[in-house]
Structures are given as structure tokens and as C-alpha cells.
Amino acid sequence: MTRSRVAAERSPEVxxxxxxxxxxxxxxxxxxxxxxxxxxKRDGRQSLRFTRNGFRLRGNGKLNLAKIGDVRVKWSRALxxxxxxxxxxxxxxxxxxxxxxxxxxxxxxxxxxAEAGIDLGLTTYAVLSDxxxxxxxxxxxxxxxxxxxxxxxxxxxxxxxxNRAKARRKVAKAHAKVADTxxxxxxxxxxxxxxxxxxxxxxxxxxxxxxxxxLAKSVHDAGWATFRRLLEENAARYGRHVGIVPxxxxxxxxxxxxxHRDGPKPLHVREWACGACGVLHDRDLNAARNILAAGQADRxxxxxxPARPGVAIPRRARPVERGTRLGDPPRTGARATGAxxxxxx
Length: 345
Ligand SMILES: [Zn+2]
Known about the structure:
CATH architecture of the largest domain: 2-Layer Sandwich
Largest sheet: 5 strands, mixed
Low-confidence stretches: 1-8, 306-345
Number of helices: 8
Structural class: alpha+beta
Bound molecules: zinc ion
Helix content: 25-40%
Strand content: 15-25%
Radius of gyration: 24 Å
Distance between the termini: 44 Å
Number of domains: 3
Strand order of the largest sheet: 9-8-7-10-11
């Protein structure tokens, strides 16, 4: 009895309900939490998980699933080790994906001296404290005309008709393409950043707040939350550090040369001269340098941080393994995602 109760307490539904009640009664801080949403037949996304005995990998590259049989798979990359489970997902675009959970030994990269502050923005995606710039790809903005056409097509179709279902799949496919391209780009950028710096620091952006404003679409398109999550995952995997600088700290107002607080600046001000030391600043580069300094100072003061400035003792970033519950013994799992669709039969 005790054992089953422990299991029940941990189940996601119970946790969601507890979060909801705590939120209503004021025990839980932060934004209000709603009731759990259950999976539905009409959801855009269906998923099914097979554990160890429920699937087998065939020598010919096919995947055998219990009660389903052999399915063809377009592998995105080779699995680094024996997978412990596989989740098959049907997305709204009608594509099937197989996502494997694989335990891998964390392969730490050799240490480097470089550390970087990152200032995220919308004009340019990011400016680094060394002066390099990552352009904003704006995937959604670029695809917008095509998406609108598909959406218009959908709205003209009669409800419940076959053609409507077809049009809906077309819209979903167009959206999926944008999301895939963005994800691919984010993976590349974050892997590169983590590869080049022992520690990276960024501002704790209130993405949820920003995403409600006038710039909402651009903020979503930028995918900052995913950018940060991928940085943290990569850091955990490669033995690097990601530091988050609190938002109260105003990086664009302080002179990175002399520390003078120059006061707020409207967004259109791209360059400014420090009122105290006279140095001319690029707004974003100055912010990135301040973020680097604040992050390094934070880390220095934190327990387990480096003993003196400039000596990087990597504190392991939060190890991330999705698909495993909190409380399980910590291990670093990389998730090899078999992208590409298994054709619908
Ligand atoms: Zn100054």
C-alpha cells in the first residue's frame, strides 16, 4: 500500500493538481496555475512510449514496436548506445517521430579560458562580449506570407469536411517547417557558443511578460527560452557553465568601462557616450560586457564558485534529462531524436 501511494504522489496528474490547489490557496507564488490538461484524441500531438521490452531494433534499420510490427525509420543519426525507451510521436503535420532515450557518459570538452556575456535582442539576435554578433534569422517573419495563404485556404473549407482536414494538415506542415528550421538553427548556435566558452552568462529575461506585449510575435520567433534551455543542456553535457544574471540589473544603463550609472536609454539609442569617462559605447556590446562582469561576480560569490577571478572551476550546470522524473538518480542522458517522418501507412 505504501509503495503504491508513493507512486501515486509522484504521478504528474497529482503534482499538477497540487500545484493548482497551492496556487489557488496562495501557497504557491508566481503566475496562477490552471487545472491539468489531459491528452485528447483531438490534440494536434499524439504520443506513445515503449519501454525496454516493448521495442526492438532490427538489423536492417527497422524499428519493431510491440503490437504494431516493423516500421521503417529515417534515422537522423546513429544511436550512441542501447536505448532504454522510445517514444513515438504523431505531430499535427501528420508526421511520426521516434525519440529514443539513451544514457551516455558525459564527454567533457577540454577547458578553455574564454567566457562570454550574451545580450539577447530582436534587432540582432545576440551580441557577445567579445564583439561578435549573431544575426536574427526571423524564421516566422520570413514564412509569414506562405502561412497566411495556407491559413486563408483553411478558413474557406467547410467544417468537418475532408478538404478541411487536408488544409489543416497543410497549415500544420508549414508551421512545423518554421519550428524545425528554428530548432536546427538554435541547436547549432548554442553548441557553438558552449564549445567556444568555458562559461556563458545571459540575462534572466521575462519571456512570458515580453511575449504578451506588442513584440510578442517577434519574441516567440526568437525562441529565447529554447535558446537558454539548449545552452544549459549543452553545458551539462560538455562540462561548461551557464550563469543567469538577475533581471533587476540594468545592463544597458551602466558604463562597462568605469561603472558609472548613466540612466535609462530609449530603445532607439544604439550608441551613447558615458557621462563620467566619455567612452563611446555600442548599446548591445556594452550590455554584453556588463552581463559578463555581473555573471562572473555572481559566480565568484556563489558557494562552490572559482577561488579567484579568472580561474574557471566549472560548476556542473544543471544536468538535464528530459523524459525522466525529478527525484530519479542523476544521470546525464542525451536524447537522440530520430527526426524525419516514418511515412503514414
Ligand atoms: Zn564610463
